[in-house]
Design goal:
305 residues; mainly alpha; MetI-like fold; elongated
Length: 305
């Protein structure tokens, strides 16, 4: 092994050692809620990513479905079938497989929607806070206009105008989700840009873009990380709400919210598992994300130290 490779290996070991010995990791190891939230999120993420490889059934392969298997109760109830642990729906589809496949769409919308709204909100928030003046006024009035309408009303209007689909939902969540980032980042930037190191960077003639990226943005990242963590769970719930109202993803791209909607139609006929189990799965996912987000909020908030 060459000397250069030895040095790189030692550098990596040093980084891992500093991480494991940091105050953040120490607090994480002694925070049961954060560990539980991490485990829940990682398990659901693993199930969503690797689901098709071990799902009992491909619920969207019409050739593998049989109407004779419709409305089978969960395996532990009387009349349950060992082949369908969580029972089946009106088309004979395995509910466990539906949860696995549906969670992929919901997580995709939650993560990508958060990333898109984060990117747009951070950009506009940095511009508004750093440059101020008319630019700030225009951006903040745009944010105020969005805040003056209920989110669900704007979402329903956009989905009605342009149709249903995952891409349409991402556009909706980007528009609605960027507002919280704009206001939060702007407030942080107004404080950071008064710091002496930012004034020094201006004095030596550094371009504004470099000052924003190198000196301003890193100092607002902790707030952004906390906000983004909580936003993922919020978008999963928003997607479920819109799908339940019939304005979310189409039937050909089912999500957890669509499964709840389909189950609600027969909920009072005694087929409770079709709606309740997807609802519990959504609750578990959002619960895990919120546990992790609460830890990050407490850890990065200097007022709680």
């Amino acid at each position: 092994m060459s000397e250069q490779m030895v040095q790189k290996s030692a550098a990596r070991e040093g980084v891992f050692k500093r991480v494991f010995q940091s105050e953040f990791f120490f607090n994480y190891r002694h925070h049961p809620s954060a560990i539980i939230g991490t485990v829940i999120v990682l398990v659901i993420l693993l199930v969503a990513l690797a689901g098709p490889f071990f799902a009992p059934q491909n619920p969207y392969d019409v050739g593998s479905l049989s109407l004779m298997d419709a409305y089978k109760p969960p395996m532990w109830q009387e009349g349950g079938d060992p082949r369908f642990f969580f029972g089946t729906d009106s088309q004979g589809r395995d509910v466990l497989s539906l949860l696995i496949y549906g969670s992929r769409i919901s997580l995709f919308i939650g993560v990508v929607g958060t990333f898109c709204s984060c990117a747009v909100g951070i950009t506009l928030g940095l511009i508004a806070g750093y440059f101020g003046g008319r630019v700030d006024a225009v951006i903040m009035r745009f944010a105020d206009i969005l805040l003056s309408f209920p989110d669900i009303l704007i979402a329903l209007f956009i989905m009605t105008m342009f149709g249903r689909g995952v891409d349409k939902l991402l556009i909706v969540f980007t528009i609605l989700g960027c507002v919280s980032y704009i206001r939060t980042v702007r407030a942080e930037v107004l404080s950071v840009k008064q710091m002496e190191y930012v004034d020094a960077a201006r004095v030596i003639g550094l371009p504004n873009l470099r000052i924003i990226l190198r000196h301003v943005l890193p100092n607002v990242m902790t707030t952004i990380i906390v906000l983004s963590t909580m936003k993922v769970g919020g978008l999963v719930l928003s997607e479920a709400t819109l799908s339940f109202l019939g304005a979310g993803v189409p039937v050909t791209e089912p999500s957890l919210g669509m499964l709840v909607k389909n189950g609600f139609d027969v909920l009072f006929s005694g087929y409770w598992w079709i709606a309740v189990l997807p609802g519990l799965y959504i609750m578990l996912l959002v619960f895990g994300i919120n546990l992790l987000g609460d830890f990050l909020r407490d850890e990065f908030n200097p007022k709680l130290k």
